[in-house]
Amino acid sequence: MPGVNGFKEYCSRRKPILSQAVDRTLRELFQDLHVPPDETFRSLFQDGKLIRGSLVCLVNESLGGDLSSAIQRSVAVEMIHGATLIHDDFVDQDRTRRGKPAAWTITGARRAVLLGDVIFASAIEMMSDLSADDGLAVSRAIARIAKGAFQEPIDASELNRRLGAEALSDTLYDAIVDLKTGVLFGVACELGAIAAGASADVRKAFHRYGLLIGEAYQIADDLQEIEHHLSNGTVCAGDLAALAPALVRFGANPQSAIAPLLAVERSVLSPALSKCLAEMRRRMAQELERRLKLARLEVAGLVAGPRERAMIHEAPRELIAMFNEA
């Protein structure tokens, strides 16, 4: 990767070849399904920065692998990510995604969910055709992502019941950020190591590296949500339900601040909840920083070339900076 200055530039250089490969795969898939390759669906997979696919390539090249061996694995990771967005938009009843109609608003809920399932299964098939290790890695990742989504509290009335029964664990947030977001970053880095022919120990280390990056990424996303509520001074019950695991994990006495607001659609932030959110922001920023440092430690000494080593060490922090810029 001579002449590349940082992960952001690396992503921009890899995006064209990854976009072409993703587009080719989707066209073949849609052709098999006898479904026109609607621009809305393709935008799900190509309008972003393709950072997960780029991580596959970065790890592979940093460990001495050939870029060509990483492309199909990168495509599989981006396909899985796109399928999760299709499912998430329907579950959350979001009608738009990146300024375009959500998939379920075009195809209907049933076909959108089934399309996501087909994409998941196709990614597993693609990777199983490469090797047993690749197939096992992505099938485990998809199962873990589904478990994370299943555990998220999205209904305000259910959340109120669980809070009242003290049934919302302070460990739930860590489980969700690991399963929901960390897993896909973890498997991306693991596939990069597999593509480079790395040993089992090195694969595991890079899997943990990716997990920590993904967890930090989700914390950064939640921090933006908290900043939004603090600046606006309002919050709705649905937003609180989504933030509940973080509130329990990082907030100060969250139950007394949350419970009264779950019964109304939108509320002005009380002084108690504002204080709770501000304390959350401080603690979550510390946790994000801790995970970025741990990610770097996981792969210390595993990359030989000085330029490649610097890229791997700085990528976690630069990736979060890219997210915050978006």
UniProtKB/TrEMBL annotation:
UniProt keywords, alphabetically: Magnesium, Metal-binding, Transferase
Cofactors that this protein relies on: Mg(2+)
Domain of life per record: Bacteria
Pfam families the record matches: polyprenyl_synt (PF00348)
Protein family: Belongs to the FPP/GGPP synthase family.
Protein name as catalogued: Polyprenyl synthetase
Protein source organism: Methylocaldum szegediense
